[in-house]
């Protein structure tokens, strides 16, 4: 007998990479082998030397096919064994290892928008829906669009063993959020990429598409972000470490270094309006949803916990944002003796 393994990988499309996947039939009990693909069809190779290598790094029960079938997250390598330039997970492995003793945890809030044809789900054929105000965490057919897809996606994530921790309807019609974590840097990123794949795959069966476009509707409509919540062991124990992490993200050339890699089109979303801080002015504050980094109210009360980097776009690569934050805050906390 056999089982099916869906090999999932991140392609080389710029400025925002896409997910790709294909199916391998394996004998029952067989381990997940290394596999190959045509990189010239995924912006990862030229046609004359097109072979690229898929190396399984995380596997999940496949909730779509069921049975013993699995979803397999992969890293992409060149045939000489070096990580392909699109392989951002390889660099995270090194940084995560370097600061492993700080026990970093991340919870990422993934916002996204459903589309049917060329319009966000819930936008009428002509004109616009009622202005924002009632949609966030709303209920009722006049405010909520796509709930059956969202519920199915949640079920699929739970069945796959994704560390999903919640869902909510967002500020714009057709816009939703799910949260993954708190988990280690590699885990949260692997889980988020597979949860994204499951989102597209689940919506496909409803004839609906989902997009991580950071500004899917122009004008007075909220963009879509991926707020990145972060803590180390020291931050979960004392407030000085919370403040040092928030300070470190604003020091020297760090703000721009981070922003550059927080998702294509980040400047268009971080305007200073719609619960954002301007992309070129770093700030942090307690309870402040207009700051780059928010210290949750409860964290100030408890004098320990985590910080929320509100800047990453919905289309950010979690392997990149978690690497930058672990690197910047990990080094600063170490230097300050807050470990
Ligand atoms: P918001 O009020 O910003 O919408 P959410 O409830 O959507 O907040 O998300 C909060 C996130 O914070 C969750 O993803 C959760 O996993 C994460 N989180 C909670 N505690 C920690 C922690 N100690 N370290 C890192 N992330 C955390
Ligand atoms: Mn949220
Ligand atoms: Mn949100
Ligand atoms: Mn948030």
- What would CATH call the class of the largest domain? Alpha Beta
Rounded mean pLDDT is: 96
CATH architecture of the largest domain: 2-Layer Sandwich
Number of strands: 14
The low-confidence runs, each spanning 5 or more residues with pLDDT under 50, are none
Count of domain modules: 2
Query: What is the chain-wise order of helices and strands?
Result: EEEEEHEEHEEHEEHHHEEHEH
Which class of secondary structure composition applies to the elements? alpha+beta
The rough form would be described as globular
CATH superfamily of the largest domain: Glutamine synthetase/guanido kinase, catalytic domain
**Under CATH, the topology of the largest domain is which?**
Creatine Kinase, Chain A, domain 2
Number of helical elements: 8
Q: Mind telling me the C-alpha Rg?
A: 20 Å
Strand content: 25-35%
- Oligomer classification: single chain
Helix content: 25-40%
- Ligands bound, unique: adenosine-5'-diphosphate, manganese (II) ion
Q: Give the distance, in angstroms, between the N- and C-terminal Cα atoms.
A: 51 Å
Q: How would you sum up the major sheet? A: 9 strands, mixed
Catalytic activity: L-glutamate + NH4(+) + ATP = L-glutamine + ADP + phosphate + H(+)
EC number: 6.3.1.2
Organism: Actinacidiphila bryophytorum
Subunit structure: Homooctamer and homotetramer.
């Amino acid at each position: 007998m056999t089982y099916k393994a869906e090999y999932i990988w991140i392609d080389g499309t710029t400025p925002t990479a896409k997910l790709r996947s294909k199916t391998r039939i394996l004998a029952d009990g067989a381990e997940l082998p290394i596999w190959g693909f045509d990189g010239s069809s995924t912006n990862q190779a030229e046609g004359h030397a097109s072979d690229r290598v898929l190396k399984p790094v995380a596997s999940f029960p496949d909730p779509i096919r069921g049975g013993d079938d699995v979803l397999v997250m992969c890293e992409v390598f060149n045939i000489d064994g070096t990580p392909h330039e699109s392989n951002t997970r390889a660099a995270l492995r090194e940084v995560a290892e370097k600061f492993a003793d700080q026990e970093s945890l991340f919870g990422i809030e993934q916002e996204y928008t459903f589309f049917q044809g060329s319009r966000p789900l819930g936008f009428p054929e002509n004109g616009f829906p009622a202005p924002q105000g009632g949609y966030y965490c709303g209920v009722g057919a006049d405010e909520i669009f796509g709930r059956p897809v969202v519920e199915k996606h949640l079920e699929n994530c739970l069945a796959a063993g994704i560390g999903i921790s919640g869902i909510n309807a967002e500020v714009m019609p057709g816009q939703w959020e799910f949260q993954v974590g708190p988990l280690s840097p590699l885990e949260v990123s692997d889980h988020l990429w597979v949860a994204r794949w499951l989102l597209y795959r689940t919506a496909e069966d409803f004839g609906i598409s989902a997009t991580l476009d950071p500004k899917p509707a122009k004008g007075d409509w909220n963009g879509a972000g991926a707020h990145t919540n972060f803590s180390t062991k020291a931050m979960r124990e004392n407030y000085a470490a919370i403040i040092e992490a928030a300070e470190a993200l604003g020091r020297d050339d760090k703000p721009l270094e981070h922003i550059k890699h927080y998702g294509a089109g980040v400047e268009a979303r971080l305007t200073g309006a719609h619960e954002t801080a301007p992309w070129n002015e770093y700030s942090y504050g307690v309870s402040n949803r207009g700051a780059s980094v928010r210290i949750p109210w409860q964290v100030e009360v408890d004098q320990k916990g985590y910080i929320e980097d509100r800047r990453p776009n919905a289309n950010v690569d979690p392997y990149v944002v978690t690497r930058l934050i672990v690197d910047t805050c990990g080094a600063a906390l170490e230097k300050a003796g807050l470990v």
